[in-house]
Design goal:
CATH class: Alpha Beta
CATH architecture: 3-Layer(aba) Sandwich
Radius of gyration: 19 Å
Length: 269
């Protein structure tokens, strides 16, 4: 039996598969004003970057949330991984763009002759993404992870996935079952890879996949004024970057781009 061609698709999460930052669900559940929270985070990040311009503050929001969770009397006080997972299971679906999560199953059914793997590369929270419907639809998740320390009764950031690590995640996905072994080779060639994101944190991921002949798609939200222009401007800076609305149902521009690329891979000798 002929081995199926292997195709890896990698997705950002927030503003790509989800309408907004999924940690917002935790903030709302604990009665915290989302807009005020992100304004404060942005202010502190900018101040930090002014003093330390070479640092990357992508996970600042999460380290701040875990610090709040360990402070008695704070709105996030006592936050646990179990609560975070429960919030995701109950509420993550409210953030899905049209066609999510059905898209993940449908594309595998439509292209059963290909071995397709779905992967999320996010600046978000692994435990939330894994506990939601997305967790059962994707093969791998690269995101920030947490552990619960029983001795000090606190949440701790255990692992990170910053914007600077997204291109590393692409390499790990490409290596597939060979990653972490002495075996050389790439199970999922980057030339047959598709990556999907929404902007600045995805630039290096886009460039890496495009350089090796893969497909990169920048999505935009049609309900946000100026978002299409933002995506188009990024496409002008990154040669070969495709642009489409964040609509994942059959017949959408996004699905047509995906189908066209998968057809090409399927027919290639």
């Amino acid at each position: 039996m002929k081995e199926r061609k292997k195709v890896a698709i990698a997705y950002d999460a927030d503003r790509t598969l989800l309408r907004e930052n999924h940690p917002n669900l935790i903030l709302r559940a604990r009665g915290i004003d989302v807009e005020d929270f992100w304004k404060k985070i942005s202010k502190m990040q900018n101040e930090h970057k002014t003093e330390f311009p070479d640092s990357n503050p992508d996970i600042f929001y999460l380290t701040y949330m875990t610090a709040m969770a360990s402070k008695e009397g704070n709105p996030l006080s006592g936050l646990t991984i179990k609560e975070i997972e429960q919030i995701a299971r109950q509420q993550m679906h409210t953030l899905y763009y049209p066609g999510i999560p059905e898209f993940f199953r449908e594309v595998k059914t439509d292209y059963s002759e290909l071995d397709i793997t779905h992967n999320i590369i996010s600046l978000g929270i692994t435990e939330m993404l894994r506990a939601s419907d997305l967790g059962s639809c994707v093969d791998r998740i690269f995101a920030n992870s947490l552990i619960q320390d029983p001795e000090i009764e606190a949440l701790i950031v255990a692992g990170t996935d910053t914007s600077l690590e997204k291109d590393s995640a692409i390499k790990k996905i490409s290596r597939g079952r060979y990653y972490g072994t002495e075996t050389s080779g790439f199970e999922f060639p980057i030339s047959q890879m598709i990556c999907v994101g929404d902007g600045e944190s995805d630039k290096e991921m886009f460039r890496q996949v495009l350089r090796q002949g893969g497909l990169a798609i920048c999505v935009y939200d049609t309900s946000i004024e100026g978002d299409e222009q933002r995506a188009t401007a990024l496409a002008k800076r990154i040669k070969g970057l495709s642009v489409a609305p964040s609509e994942y149902r059959a017949g959408s521009n996004f699905r047509n781009l995906i189908s066209q690329r998968l057809d090409e891979i399927q027919k290639a000798v």
